[in-house]
């Protein structure tokens, strides 16, 4: 153990795509996640040549720890060291493989194409920062590069699966009225949470007063559409960045991908595409939760003797 | 708290190094700790922002236990059966033991179940692991939004049902609209009470609009039970006229009794279906009792309106007031007594003519600083 920041930087960058997730999940406390998240993000920015993330978190690490009331691990640690070992093993085992939950099997490029995920907006609506993700432009319509979408979607689903495996709170956000009911139903089916209504200012930043003292904030926010009804960036993206909450967002060709932790370039307007995303996220989360139950049963059964996985 | 106003920011990192063993020490050495001076104003609590006082569940449970014990003590004190001591008995006992002449009923001593005294509050919304119970918790208004979500789900279900019928060819436009009866939608306050959370007028309007939209769809009768939960029955529009019962005396003559009031006069009338048209007031003949034509007209008006002038015998008693108010009281009493002899349509006609409406006008009191009830003293310019 004892990975140093320096040693991390020495690793070869292209293979560190999955190790980014590994490193982030290695540490339990979310405030530290930010710090190392910023380091990993900076690394990714260097490699991919993406525009600099104005990651405001990097400078201000000095936020009081006591303000966060969070539970670091979903399972309450009993005093016995043996059960502690079991929990540690359960939590660390998925981090050893790059695609432990096999999320890559859930979708193929053809599925994305059939769901019309590659269709972007017109050239005039294009956001400057989305240019790297576009395959091209045909008759003024932007086409999103599905190869890149595949990679990003895989990363995003993998991250979601890991968060769900660890019992994190996932919040689905979308301000599109057409898909509000669908997103809420998806969240209900996964056992997670949704917010497809008017976003009140202090929901994340003023949580202790809005909800009551001692509330637990979401551990991941998934944006099915990063824009609100007036075609501006959703306030939740900025607030999540402020509160050190990682975000997964479906960014269309008119969206700003910079503050989203795991952007997934793709169409957010077509019902087929949004249904596909909802289905994929639901399957990943359910899969991860089932896996967790399996692991607990497995280790719970063989806890006193040596474990067999 | 007020004393230690200087926070050291570096201590945060120290705490975190304790909790995670694998932290890189390189990073901690890079960041410096600096002193942050904070004024006591920041440590002060904003009392107004806390909102209405919140009671914990244990406190309310304790209050309920105390109430139950107190109820038994009260029953023993009053010598009543402590098992079957109802709330009415409690109210009477308290009124007896603590007589209060305060005008405001709500200021008088009171002993009620804590559920009626303490406003309904929401219990803690999340479990031991911090996960909220409701899937819309993070919206802030979970009950309202979950209601809207369910409502929209029902609309989609009805639309799917319609599509299925259309595919089979069985769709008909005018089928099975919900019959609601004389009822009204819940008011905003009632909805707030139901949901145990505050909603804005805008939210309420949207809810009503969505409900109306659902009701306008052809096959909405499947969701009738859901809709009725959000409607209240109106009291019967037309109050049934309080008809005096028709009795028969020993000679087989049908008669009815009614009372009437006007200003300070009270009257009672017995209407007999004899056929002579004889009228007695306080033992005297009506010509003697009411020398003025106007009063006699008032008396006769109900009978003349119905065209039964010569049919009935009237035996009246009246007291209080002046001649005009006595005549008015008698008129009301006669009209009421007449209701039992007439049909529904005639009764409705009498009501529309204003014969059955008691006149609410009473003498207005004189106010100080004025000569009369309305008349002011003469105003002199100088």
UniProtKB/TrEMBL annotation, chain A:
GO function terms (MF aspect): structural constituent of ribosome
Location in or out of the cell: Mitochondrion
Pfam families according to UniProt: Ribosomal_S2
Domain of life: Eukaryota
Cross-referenced InterPro entries: Ribosomal_uS2 (IPR001865), Ribosomal_uS2_bac/mit/plastid (IPR005706), Ribosomal_uS2_CS (IPR018130), Ribosomal_uS2_flav_dom_sf (IPR023591)
Ribonucleoprotein as UniProt keyword: yes
Gene Ontology BP, a term: translation
Coiled coil regions, renumbered to chain: none
GO cellular component, one term: mitochondrial inner membrane
CDD domains the record matches: RPS2
Keywords: Mitochondrion, Ribonucleoprotein, Ribosomal protein
Family per similarity comment: Belongs to the universal ribosomal protein uS2 family.
Described function: Required for mitoribosome formation and stability, and mitochondrial translation.
The protein's name in its UniProt record: Small ribosomal subunit protein uS2m
Gene this protein is translated from: B4GALT4
TrEMBL record, chain B:
Gene Ontology biological process terms, A to Z: translation
InterPro entries, A to Z: Ribosomal_Su5_D2-typ_SF, Ribosomal_uS9, Ribosomal_uS9_CS, Ribsml_uS5_D2-typ_fold_subgr
Cross-referenced SUPFAM superfamilies: Ribosomal protein S5 domain 2-like
Signal peptide region: none
Gene3D superfamilies xrefs: 3.30.230.10
Region (Disordered) residue spans: 351-382
GO molecular function: RNA binding; structural constituent of ribosome
GO cellular component terms given for this protein: mitochondrial inner membrane; mitochondrial small ribosomal subunit
Keywords (A to Z) from UniProt: Mitochondrion, Ribonucleoprotein, Ribosomal protein, Transit peptide
Localization of this protein: Mitochondrion
Predominant subcellular localization, coarse grouping: mitochondrion
The UniProt record lists the keyword ATP-binding: no
Family classification: Belongs to the universal ribosomal protein uS9 family.
Protein name: Small ribosomal subunit protein uS9m
Organism (species): Oreochromis aureus
Gene (name only): MRPS9
């Amino acid at each position: 153990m004892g990975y140093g920041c320096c040693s991390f930087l020495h690793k070869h960058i292209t293979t560190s795509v999955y190790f980014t997730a590994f490193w982030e999940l290695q540490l339990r406390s979310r405030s530290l996640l930010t710090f190392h998240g910023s380091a990993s993000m900076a690394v990714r920015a260097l490699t991919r040549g993406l525009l600099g993330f104005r990651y405001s978190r990097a400078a201000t690490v000095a936020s009081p720890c006591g303000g966060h009331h969070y539970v670091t691990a979903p399972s309450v640690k009993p005093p016995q060291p043996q059960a502690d070992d079991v929990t540690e093993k359960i939590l660390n085992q998925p981090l050893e493989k790059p695609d432990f939950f096999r999320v890559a099997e859930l979708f193929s490029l053809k599925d994305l194409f059939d769901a019309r995920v590659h269709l972007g907006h017109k050239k005039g609506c294009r956001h400057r920062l989305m240019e790297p993700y576009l395959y091209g432009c045909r008759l003024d319509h932007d086409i999103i590069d599905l190869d890149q979408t595949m990679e990003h979607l895989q990363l995003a689903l993998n991250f979601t699966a890991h968060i769900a495996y660890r019992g994190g709170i996932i919040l689905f956000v979308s301000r599109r009225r057409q898909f509000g009911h669908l997103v809420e139903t998806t969240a209900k089916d996964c056992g997670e949470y949704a917010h497809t209504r008017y976003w009140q200012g202090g929901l994340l930043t003023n949580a202790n007063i809005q909800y009551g003292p001692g509330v637990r904030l979401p551990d991941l926010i998934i944006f099915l559409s990063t824009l609100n009804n007036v075609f501006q960036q959703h306030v939740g993206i900025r607030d999540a960045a402020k509160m050190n909450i990682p975000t997964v967002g479906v960014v269309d060709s008119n969206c700003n991908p910079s503050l989203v932790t795991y952007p997934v370039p793709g169409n957010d307007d077509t019902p087929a595409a949004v249904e596909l995303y909802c289905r994929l996220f639901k399957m990943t989360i359910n899969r991860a939760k089932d896996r967790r139950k399996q692991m607990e049963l497995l280790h719970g059964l063989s806890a006193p003797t040596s474990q067999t996985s | 708290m007020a004393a230690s106003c200087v926070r050291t920011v570096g201590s945060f990192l120290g705490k975190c190094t304790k909790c995670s063993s694998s932290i890189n020490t390189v990073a901690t050495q890079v960041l410096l700790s600096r002193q942050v001076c904070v004024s006591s104003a920041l440590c002060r609590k904003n009392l107004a922002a806390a909102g209405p006082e919140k009671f914990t569940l244990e406190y309310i449970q304790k209050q309920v236990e105390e109430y139950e014990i107190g109820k038994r003590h009260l029953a023993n004190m009053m010598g009543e059966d402590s098992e079957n001591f109802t709330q009415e008995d409690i109210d009477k006992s308290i009124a007896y033991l603590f007589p209060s002449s305060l005008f405001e009923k709500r200021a008088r001593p009171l002993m009620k179940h804590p559920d009626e005294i303490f406003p309904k509050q929401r219990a803690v919304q999340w479990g031991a692991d911090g996960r909220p119970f409701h899937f819309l918790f993070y919206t802030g208004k979970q009950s309202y939004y979950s209601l809207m979500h369910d409502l929209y789900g029902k609309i989609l279900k009805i639309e799917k049902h319609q599509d299925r019928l259309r595919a089979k060819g069985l769709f008909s436009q005018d089928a099975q609209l919900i019959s609601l009866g004389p009822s009204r939608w819940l008011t905003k306050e009632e909805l707030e009470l139901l949901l145990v959370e505050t909603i804005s007028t805008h939210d309420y309007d949207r809810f009503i609009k969505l409900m109306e939209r659902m009701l306008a769809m052809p096959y909405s009768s499947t969701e009738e039970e859901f809709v009725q939960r959000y409607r209240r029955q109106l009291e019967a529009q037309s109050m049934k006229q309080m008809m005096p019962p028709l009795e028969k005396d020993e000679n087989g003559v049908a008669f009815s009794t009614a009372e009437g009031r006007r200003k300070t006069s009270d009257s009672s009338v017995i209407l007999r279906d004899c056929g002579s048209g004889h009228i007695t007031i306080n033992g005297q003949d009506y010509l003697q009792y009411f020398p003025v034509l106007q009063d006699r007209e008032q008396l006769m008006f109900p009978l003349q309106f119905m065209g039964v002038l010569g049919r009935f015998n009237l035996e009246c008693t009246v007291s209080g007031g002046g001649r005009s108010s006595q005549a008015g009281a008698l008129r009301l009493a006669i009209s009421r007594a007449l209701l039992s002899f007439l049909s529904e349509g005639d009764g409705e006609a009498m009501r529309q003519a204003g014969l059955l409406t008691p006149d609410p006008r009473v003498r207005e009191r004189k106010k100080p600083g004025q000569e009369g009830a309305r008349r002011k003293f003469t105003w002199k310019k100088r």
